[in-house]
Amino acid sequence: MSANLANLESHLATRSYVEGYTPSQADVVVFKAITSAPDASAYPHVSRWFNHIKSYTAEFDSLPGSSQAGEAFLGGAAPAAEKKEEEDDDDVDLFGSDDEEDAEAERIKAERVAAYNAKKAAKPKTVAKSVVTFEVKPWDDETDMAKLEECVRSIEMPGLVWGASKLVPIGYGIRKLQITLVVEDELVSLDELQEKVAEFDEYVQSSDVAAMQKL
Q: Does the structure show a pLDDT above 90 at 137?
């Protein structure tokens, strides 16, 4: 069955698709009923729509919706009669259009909400980080603190960034290393970090987390 190009031209003058705001099965059924590309001079809107829908050919089977709305544009007599009836009965058409527009508006709203939620879900998750004040005590006042700090900073872990440091006196000429670091909470275990620091037992007596604050 062929498509009624005159009715379709009038319909597409104010619309991008046969039904709704995205390609659907209604477009597919009408497209397949057109055996050759429409004359752009006689049916400019149909020609524009035809070329656009043609780009979806590979996706025809997966397009959503029903073909029912498109079937109204197949054949010559019935659609023409329906068009005439619509023109003669403006009041009925007006109320019908309102109902259709309300339903379409609700559908578009739902699609936009779904698209927003999908976009929101796709955004990168905020990485939780903490600033930590880390203290390392040497064995005695003869411990090479420069070497101790070098050993501590040599530890590399994903999500670990070493910061500023200073030596803090703790008595009897002994000073401890106090160093700031930033960690990604999901990647860095402070217990594991302390275990790694303890491996430098030639210089390190103990270590401790003096303070921790979320960023």
A: yes
